[in-house]
């Protein structure tokens, strides 16, 4: 399965169904055992996140949020780049990075085209780097923003599902943000500095920039009742996710997945206020990326089989000779491996294939499985060099306004930088977020 995922010999979602076919005949588990991980609570958390994001897209709330952020930051060339990074990152924490990139790209292209035209009217040429920087700010902001929340990108949810399925340990929404959010806060300025250092903007003002943003906002009109209601449900859901550890004492059984599905059901019930329909219809829901949910299930089923057969323990014992190696060195190597692989393969498939291995390796080294798994899952979002690495990279490359060498020139530096940043921040915060103690295997992983 790992080979098929990495090579994409079959569609990734189709490969995810292999455990249902092979595990029972191989006497690894029965069909119930193979199928149960496909209904893991983390899959329903991500399903709920997909549905909320779809409602934002249906009513164009995500576009209003993005334009509001860009307008707030300002339209001087450095400010507009910062605005695009912030807007792309914030939306990617809640909406798929693919949808965010597709929404931000036309806005960016409009600014580039109008700037070129206005400069031509003055008899001036467009600085060669402004368009490159603006487009890459969209892609890189989308890539990094997803690391901030558990539903921001599939590798995050895969990690939570892996620990739930293999070790019976829950990773909460707020718990993840203890690591993910600081990483995003640190990463975004680094992206801006790297982009503007490798490609100086060389543009003092953005002619017509204010007019573009004002025109885009005018096309949206005043905020509708539907947008207001979706925004309220989204805000309440995010608040419940972040405060659930406190609310669990008052509401027994409250879970992140339950909150997500509750919000999703609400979207199908609450009227839009502008048409004879609810905020969301099943026709809208049919457009969700159902294949990603199958991939989650397949990855978790494979991880469960690896654990139950003793293969994980065997892999861990195989690396026991590395025990005593510097922990940071092992961490850097693990993150670097994932980052490099993600440049040429799906980050979701890479994470699904490697999480069981890294968990076993950590135990074999006498360490908490979180120690290797968390940085690796985060590293899967840090591929900046090639268009094939992530959907946002491919989307901005498809504009034909930048080349692979232009993307790789700054992407190589960012890859190297983020290997260090992800390793360092995760190492520093995992004790707070997940109770990791160096040189100690927790009881739930020792069995």
Automatic annotation (TrEMBL):
GO terms for cellular component: plasma membrane. CDD domains: SLC13_permease. InterPro entries: Na/sul_symport_CS (IPR031312), SLC13A/DASS (IPR001898). It is found in: Membrane. It is a multi-pass membrane protein. Keywords: Membrane, Transmembrane, Transmembrane helix, Transport. One of its GO terms (molecular function) is succinate transmembrane transporter activity. Pfam families: Na_sulph_symp. PANTHER family: SOLUTE CARRIER FAMILY 13 MEMBER, SOLUTE CARRIER FAMILY 13 MEMBER 2. NCBIfam families: dass. This is Sodium-dependent dicarboxylate transporter 2/3/5. The lineage of its organism: Bacteria, Pseudomonadati, Rhodothermota, Rhodothermia, Rhodothermales.
């Amino acid at each position: 399965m790992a080979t098929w995922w990495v090579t994409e010999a079959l569609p990734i979602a189709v490969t995810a169904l292999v455990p249902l076919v092979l595990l029972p005949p191989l006497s690894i588990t029965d069909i119930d055992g193979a199928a149960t991980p496909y209904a893991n609570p983390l899959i329903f958390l991500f399903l709920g996140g997909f549905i909320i994001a779809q409602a934002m897209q249906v009513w164009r709330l995500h576009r209003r949020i993005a334009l509001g952020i860009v307008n707030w930051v300002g339209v001087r060339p450095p400010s507009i780049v910062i605005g695009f990074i912030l807007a792309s990152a914030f939306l990617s924490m809640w909406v798929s990075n693919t949808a965010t990139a597709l929404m931000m790209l036309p806005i960016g292209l409009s600014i580039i085209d109008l700037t070129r035209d206005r400069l031509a009217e003055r008899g001036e040429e467009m600085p060669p780097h402004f368009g490159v920087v603006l487009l890459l700010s969209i892609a890189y902001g989308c890539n990094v923003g997803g690391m901030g929340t558990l539903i921001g990108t599939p590798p995050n949810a895969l990690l939570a599902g892996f620990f739930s399925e293999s070790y019976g340990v829950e990773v909460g929404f707020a718990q993840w943000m203890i690591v993910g959010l600081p990483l995003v806060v640190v990463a975004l300025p680094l992206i801006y500095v790297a982009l503007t250092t490798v490609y100086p903007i060389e543009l003092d003002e953005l002619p017509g920039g204010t007019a573009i943003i004002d025109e885009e906002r005018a096309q949206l009109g005043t905020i509708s009742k539907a947008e207001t209601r979706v925004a309220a449900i989204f805000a309440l859901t995010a608040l419940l996710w972040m405060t659930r550890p406190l609310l669990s004492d008052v509401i027994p059984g409250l879970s992140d997945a339950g909150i997500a599905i509750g919000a999703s059901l609400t979207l199908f019930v609450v009227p839009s206020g502008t048409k004879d329909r609810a905020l969301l219809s099943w026709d809208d829901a049919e457009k969700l990326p159902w294949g990603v949910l199958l991939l989650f299930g397949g990855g978790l089923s494979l991880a469960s089989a690896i654990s139950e057969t003793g293969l994980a323990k065997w892999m861990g014992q195989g690396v026991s000779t590395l025990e005593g190696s510097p922990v940071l060195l092992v961490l850097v190597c693990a993150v670097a491996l994932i980052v490099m692989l993600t440049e040429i393969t799906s980050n979701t498939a890479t994470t699904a294939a490697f999480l069981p291995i890294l968990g076993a390796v950590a135990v074999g080294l006498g360490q908490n499985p979180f120690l290797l798994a968390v940085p690796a899952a985060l590293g899967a979002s840090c591929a900046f060099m090639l268009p094939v690495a992530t959907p946002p990279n491919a989307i901005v490359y498809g504009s034909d306004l930048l080349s692979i060498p232009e993307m790789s020139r700054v992407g190589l530096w960012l890859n190297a930088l983020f290997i260090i940043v992800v390793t360092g921040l995760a190492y520093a915060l995992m004790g707070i977020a997940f109770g990791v103690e160096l040189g100690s295997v927790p009881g739930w992983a020792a069995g």
